[in-house]
């Protein structure tokens, strides 16, 4: 790596550490002062990080915060024992309670991304996939939950093309899918059974942060263990975890990536 490139990487890391040290948000001048990096350089790097949804810039206060988009990639390295660590604690408790793998997803149109995952105690018959990873909204319980929080026109505008290209025929068309979202909203959770994979099931609930529902928590496992008769039982546990995560993210002030909140 060239010297100039190595220097840019170091400056980027210093800036990320500086912003991560201020969960309440921090302005450009303070970032430059604390990091020792010229203000103009800070601005250029921060602009790129915001565009990539690693940081969020409040349009009113002009203060930067670490976004969940960054924490999903680097885990707890920048957050220390903070919000990301507590999030994983909630997932561990959920996995232990339900005896299934638990995870946390974010909506990144036109797909959902798994950003955290904790294996359950029984992985026999279940392959643990890498994180982060993207998955289709139509064939996952988290996708259904997250789309149920959107208006019909938003779903058509942002996901219509994806639906026509990749949605399975058994969904009965986009209008039928949108109508099915009413049931998801009423009961507070969604189920996917033999949809993402034959022999796999999942249950998801929405994680609400303020007025936004861009996150979802889920559990998943093989259908012979996560049977239909267990759905109501485990759904209560998933919804409880969703409330805990919503409270956690609201209190810690971690911002949604800008691209996800502009609806």
UniProtKB/TrEMBL annotation:
Annotated ranges, domain HTH iclR-type: 6-68
Keywords: DNA-binding, Transcription, Transcription regulation
This protein's record includes keyword Membrane: no
A Pfam family hit: HTH_IclR
InterPro entries hit by this protein: GAF-like_dom_sf, HTH_MetabolicPath_Reg, Tscrpt_reg_IclR_C, Tscrpt_reg_IclR_N, WH-like_DNA-bd_sf, WH_DNA-bd_sf
Domain IclR-ED: 69-251
Lineage: superkingdom: Bacteria
Keyword Transcription found: yes
Protein name: IclR family transcriptional regulator
Organism the protein comes from: Streptomyces kebangsaanensis
């Amino acid at each position: 790596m060239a010297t100039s490139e190595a220097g840019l990487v170091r400056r980027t890391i210093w800036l990320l550490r500086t912003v991560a040290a201020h969960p309440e948000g921090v302005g450009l001048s303070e970032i430059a002062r604390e990091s020792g990096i010229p203000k103009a350089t800070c601005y250029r790097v921060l602009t790129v990080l915001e565009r990539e949804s690693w940081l969020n810039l409040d349009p009113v206060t002009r203060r930067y915060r670490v976004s969940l988009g960054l924490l999903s990639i680097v885990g707890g390295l920048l957050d220390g024992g903070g919000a990301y660590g507590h999030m994983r604690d909630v997932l561990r408790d959920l996995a232990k309670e339900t005896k299934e793998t638990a995870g946390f997803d974010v909506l990144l149109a036109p797909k959902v991304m798994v950003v955290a995952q904790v294996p359950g105690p029984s992985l026999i018959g279940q392959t643990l996939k890498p994180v982060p990873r993207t998955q289709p909204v139509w064939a996952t319980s988290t996708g259904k939950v997250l789309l149920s929080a959107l208006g019909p026109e938003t779903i058509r505008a942002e996901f219509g093309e994806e639906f026509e290209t990749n949605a399975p025929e058994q969904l009965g068309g986009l209008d039928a899918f949108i109508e099915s979202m009413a049931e998801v909203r009423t009961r507070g959770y969604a189920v996917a059974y033999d949809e993402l994979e034959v022999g796999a099931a999942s249950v998801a609930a929405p994680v609400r942060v303020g007025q936004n529902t861009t996150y979802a928590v889920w559990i998943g496992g093989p259908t012979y263990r996560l049977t239909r008769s267990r759905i109501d039982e485990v759904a209560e546990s998933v919804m409880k975890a969703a409330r805990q995560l919503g409270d956690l993210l609201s209190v810690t002030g971690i911002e949604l990536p800008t691209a996800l909140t502009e609806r």
